[in-house]
Amino acid sequence: MFGSALGSRRRDRDAAWIRRILRGSERAADALVREHYDGLFAFVYRQVGDHEETMNLTQESFIAALQSLASYDPARASFTTWLYRIAAYKVIDARRRTHPIAVSLDSGGLGDGEPDAFDGTDLPDERIPDMSELAADRDLLERIEERVASCDPAAQEVFRLHLYAERSFAQIAATAGESESTVKARYYRLMALLRKEFGDERQR
User: Fold this and answer.
1) Residue 181 in contact with residue 60, Cβ under 8 Å?
2) 109: which strand partners?
């Protein structure tokens, strides 16, 4: 109950700032950025692991969000989810510059010649290393990130928003304008791929 009320107050505050920003208020823009900066910075840092790159991508995300603020639809997603989606694509674009080939997971396969492991059932993640546990193993996390970066942006979006930003599949589907089943399928196909390639590393 308390968390719900807190979230409601934050949404109301964001909405008030957004209305003022759209009328040209720089003070409101500064306030909105300050409100969300720490959370967005942490979201990006968990994915890139480099302080300077995180600062740059966080700044780029806020600039892009403010420039496209008129297109934000609060009926589809909270401002936080919308902002994190913009940041996720900033990370995807940054990764794409070093990993230019993106393999689609929507074609029915896992991108490596293996049959599709997703059968419509939510799969447990017991064999894939927990991302929060990998903070001390940047090498393994970086290799997982490199593999994720080789997949198509739509799959990466779900992976990043669900795992790193803790957005629900329903929230991701709403902001992406897609069905929840499609979003979940992308996530579990990608997790099946990661489980296949990295699942045994927890025991090492």
Assistant:
1) no
2) 115
